[in-house]
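Module 6 notes. Inverse folding takes a fixed backbone as the condition and produces residue identities as the prediction. Think of it as a translation problem where the source language is geometry and the target language is the twenty amino acids. Below is one complete input and output pair. Work through it position by position during the lab.
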């Protein structure tokens, strides 16, 4: 079952309602637009992130694109859809959904692009699979560029530091195994600024035997509290509203960290759940974006394989799995360019990636 927001709450739903009010959903073209919208949700193309493609949205037919991606709790999914040609651009609808868990459930709408933007961003509340749908208004289109990335949900809490400076992770044994480490330790020189990892309100500035000089920041919008401990000094007061990057204090080794080098103990506590591992909230995901394609020749057109045994792959990489080998002159539709690869659809609807060098135009002379 597809569970979206109430009618009119997203630009896509508002547009659908406008087509209905104008009597266009009952026309062949309007019905095809609605079918394309549903099909993109029912049969998305799995992607590995980060991902970037350039393609063509045909204004001559109803089109919608659907992609499924995976994200860990605390990671931020960011998708940007750009029209390459300047001029009178079409209305574009970008929607993000959460796919049901393996045990079942509904496809739930999460976020849509707002007026004047073709970008959606969402911090994953649970680890799992998500679905991105992109669709233009009727009879509009053109060449586009789509970029989908995973980013940390928070900024790194120590200025100038990175994951390489984490010396102790979540769940490590403490006090001879009598307790667990409920955060990560980020080592840095004494006096290094400790910054707010997210927006929130300073709820407590105090000193305790274990944490030493500590600062608690509450992010009420998502129901969690952030804990900054072992500070050398605190530079904020309770009740202050902070933004990501605002300085909260300075790295130190107060409390029970007096025998260790200066470091920040950073913890994340979810409402009704307690401490959770902060690492995926602050570390940069691995991977690099594919290069921009050298051109869009053949994209949006039918082509065919020029060699015997051309491999259709799950990702645009020779290291990815190959799920079929195609005979020479297999006809396929070239939907987008991903670097020197092409995202294609076979006549039976199967989608995948194939090296652009293995394709030729459908009008090429057969030998």
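Target side of the pair, the amino acids:
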């Amino acid at each position: 079952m597809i569970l979206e927001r109430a009618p009119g709450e997203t630009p896509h739903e508002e547009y659908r309602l406008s087509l209905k009010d104008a009597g266009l959903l009952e026309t062949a073209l309007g019905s095809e637009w609605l079918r394309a919208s549903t099909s993109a949700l029912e049969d998305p193309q799995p992607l590995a992130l980060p991902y970037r493609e350039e393609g063509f949205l045909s204004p001559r037919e109803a089109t919608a694109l659907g992609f499924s991606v995976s994200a860990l709790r605390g990671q931020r999914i960011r998708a940007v859809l750009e029209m390459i040609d300047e001029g009178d651009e079409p209305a574009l609808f970008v929607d993000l959904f959460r796919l049901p868990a393996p045990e079942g459930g509904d496809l739930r709408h999460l976020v849509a692009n707002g007026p004047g933007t073709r970008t959606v961003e969402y911090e994953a509340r649970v680890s799992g699979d998500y679905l991105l749908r992109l669709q233009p208004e009727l009879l509009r289109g053109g060449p586009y560029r789509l970029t989908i990335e995973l980013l940390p949900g928070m900024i790194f809490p120590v200025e100038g530091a990175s994951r390489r400076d984490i010396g102790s992770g979540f769940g490590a044994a403490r006090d001879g195994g009598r307790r667990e480490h409920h955060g990560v330790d980020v080592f840095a020189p004494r006096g290094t600024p400790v910054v707010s990892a997210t927006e929130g309100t300073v709820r407590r500035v105090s000193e305790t035997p274990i944490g030493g000089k500590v600062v608690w920041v509450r992010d009420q919008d998502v129901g969690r509290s952030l804990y900054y401990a072992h500070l050398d000094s605190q530079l904020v007061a309770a009740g202050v509203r902070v933004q990501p990057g605002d300085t909260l204090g300075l790295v130190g080794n107060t409390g029970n960290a007096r025998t260790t080098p200066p470091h920040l103990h950073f913890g994340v506590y979810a409402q009704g759940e307690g401490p959770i591992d902060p690492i995926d909230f602050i570390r940069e995901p691995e991977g690099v974006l594919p290069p921009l394609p050298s051109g869009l020749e053949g994209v949006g057109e039918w082509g065919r394989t020029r060699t015997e045994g051309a491999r259709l792959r799950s990702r645009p990489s020779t290291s990815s799995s190959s799920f079929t080998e195609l005979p020479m002159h297999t006809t396929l539709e070239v939907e987008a360019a991903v670097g020197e690869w092409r995202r294609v659809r076979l006549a039976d609807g199967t989608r995948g990636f194939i090296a652009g060098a293995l394709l030729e135009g459908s009008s090429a002379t057969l030998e």
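Reference fact for the lab report: The chain has three domains: 2-152, 163-280, 302-361.
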